[in-house]
Amino acid sequence: MKNFDLNSIRKDFPTLFQSVNGKPLVYLDNAATTHKPQVVLDAISDYYRNFNANPHRGAHYLGVTATDMYENARETVQKFVNAKSTREIIFTKNASEALNLIAYSYGMSLIEEGDEIVICISEHHSNIVPWQQVAKHKKATLKYLYINPSFTLDMDEVYSKITDKTKLVSIAQMSNVLGTIYPVKEIAEYAHGMGAKIVVDAAQSIPHMKVDVQDINADFMVFSGHKMLGPMGIGVLYGKEELLEMMPPFLMGGDMIEYVEEQSTTYAQLPQKFEAGTPNVGGAVGLAAAIGYLKELGIEEIHKHERKLTSYALSRLKELPYVKVYGPEQLDQRGAVISFHMDGCHPHDVASIVDTYGVALRAGHHCAQPLMKYLQAPATSRVSFYFYNTINEVDILIDSLKQVRKWLGHGA
Amino acid sequence: MELESIYTDLILEHSQSSHNKRHLDHADWCERGHNPSCGDDILLELKWKDNIVEEAAFTGSGCAISQASTSMMIDLINGKSVEEAKHLADTFLAMIKKIITEDSDLEVLEDAMAFKNISNMPARVKCAVLAWHTLNEALKNKKVNEKI
């Protein structure tokens, strides 16, 4: 394990060292995407410079090597999430595509009229819209788990909403708006008791904490590479083998077939059955390098540092009487995402003004419009940390927020 | 980019002023304008008298830039003919796109000239133009309705 030395860690990330509007970049939009360490950039570049061939086809040297690299990346992911087999790991372009795959393949064929699908009110649009489509087409009911005033989920809400009619529960392990970490293991246990399957959206959680699919007993789990140091355009669907076996393919085409006749086709074995077309080998190789980097750093060390940053940021935000935080106060119930509203300052103005101080944060509805409506907040500002952020950057954030108030004519 | 050129006193004053922010008693036309990616959401209400915009007002929520731009637009179009209002919207949008750059050609926009530099802040252009696109939609719909 690497020594957790922030200065040397930051040096691994070339994009962090730049100035924005004449100020050093303070990147606090990691829930949207993270920056990439040199080892990831090198792995992608190495693949395209030295190998680059279409995997699973042909017998030439480069083709065989590209296949090995792609399948090794799959094995790295399998071990990272503790799946039983590489047949349970499907590469997609991102978490959204993985959720769509489940909705269209599993949902459209196995959910029936009168069945219930249960999701949480804090889901990202990617974990809402596909289920709305399934519910509409299959005449099923889409039900929501509502959070309590402390921005967490009561198990009583789970017990009352998940019933023997529930076929599927789909929930993010960590909210991209509130930072709330949901007890997916307990929810999975209850859902299974009711005969339902559970999808865990780990897009926000897996960059920051250990996600063990067997420990959670998730039926499906999805995440995106780019939120955990990997490149954009590569994501993962984990599914229990027996479920993936019974599901029809999602996308049809090359690489997912066994025999193609004029009028019929038999499909390839898992995982190829769900990977039509030339796959993103460079992306998979980059993701494997990102996993390698995270493992070397140690997910526990990452968690410890992010907890320190979150705790400090929450206490500094408390000093500002005009700031309201949307999210749990207890550190063990939340991750390093903090959404807030500044009285008299619209989040778009906040984001534009702090940008001139070099601070990158996110403003808006964060792809969670039903949650914003539920919270009666039209938009919020959001800061989200990763392990390369520093305490000093939190101080710069707070100073720039004070400037926002001045610019918008509210004094400090 | 200079914040001074965007968050001017004039824009702040308009964004905080509520003189155009209300419902009309008997609006002839309501047009909703929405920036789905960021959440600015306005409802523009218009009352015609023949071919004249007799009264305009708006409700909704958004950032300082979207609110100020809407308020300035309403000040400008009150009492103007439909053709004049359309011309003002087109002039404003042409100013944003830097198609019209001469101050003398932009003077008709009065306070709304304050947004001349908004394209230096590309992420905020959509906030500034929301009201004007909404007005254009409303005028287009008025025309369609009259034909029916």
Task: Give an overview in words.
The complex is a heterodimer of chains A (412) and B (148). Helices cover 40% and strands 17% of the residues of chain A. With 412 residues, chain A is an alpha/beta fold. Chain A has two domains: 6-30 and 298-401, Aspartate Aminotransferase, domain 1, CATH 3.90.1150.10; 41-295, Aspartate Aminotransferase, domain 2 (3-Layer(aba) Sandwich), CATH 3.40.640. Chain A is globular, with a radius of gyration of 22 Å. The N and C termini of chain A lie far apart (44 Å). Chain B has helices spanning 9-16, 64-77, 82-96, 103-106, 125-147; strands at residues 29-34, 41-49, 52-61. A three-stranded antiparallel sheet of chain B has the order 1-2-3, covered by helices on one side. The radius of gyration of chain B is 15 Å and the shape is globular. Chain A binds chain B through residues 21, 346-349, 351-353, 356, 363-365, 372, 378-379, 407-409, and chain B through 1, 3, 6-7, 12, 16, 37-41, 61-67, 121, 123-124, 127.
